[in-house]
Amino acid sequence: MLDTLRQPLERGSVTIHRANGSATFPCRAQLVLAANPCPCASAAGDTACTCSALERRRYQSRLSGPLLDRIDLRVTLPPVTRAAWLDGVEPPEPTSAVAARVRAARATAAERMAGTGLSLNSQVPGRMLRDRWPVPRGSLALVERALERGSLSVRGFDRVLRVAWTLADLAGLATPGPDQVAEALGLRLQRVAA
Known about the structure:
Layout: H1 6-11, E1 13-18, E2 21-26, H2 53-60, H3 65-68, H4 82-87, H5 95-112, H6 126-132, H7 141-149, H8 154-171, H9 178-189
Antiparallel strand pairs: 1-2
Helix pairs in contact: 5-8, 6-8, 8-9
């Protein structure tokens, strides 16, 4: 069932085939997934997990590789400690400040893409991204190694570049540097603990 999301996530459209023909509909979506690292999902985290390595692998394999290849960001959230819960945490950054930063980054991306019909980094086809807005080769060392090792697909390479451009836009940089590429790669390669 989840694998049916691959086409809309990749192409931004859904094609439905029936006996009398087919129809294609636009479909731009933002997919947010949440998953426990294992079936027991202990509140204490990995230290209290009772699952075997085989159970964890089987549980995690419910999300196919091709679907996971279309997920740009993977963030592991550690369990909240009792002290942090009871003592509270620092107040978060105000939403208005985050919104202003996002607006500025989107304006930068839209300016860069003027005349292309695109306005978001996520919309740029991989080929156009590499040809029209190349990231300096020296900044790509880590991502090229990940591609060579097989821990990153060509699709994943393009997705890392899109995220790196977004990070550069958020930081007010003209082009992604090694730090933005490394951060984008790190967000992509994070795995649920096995």
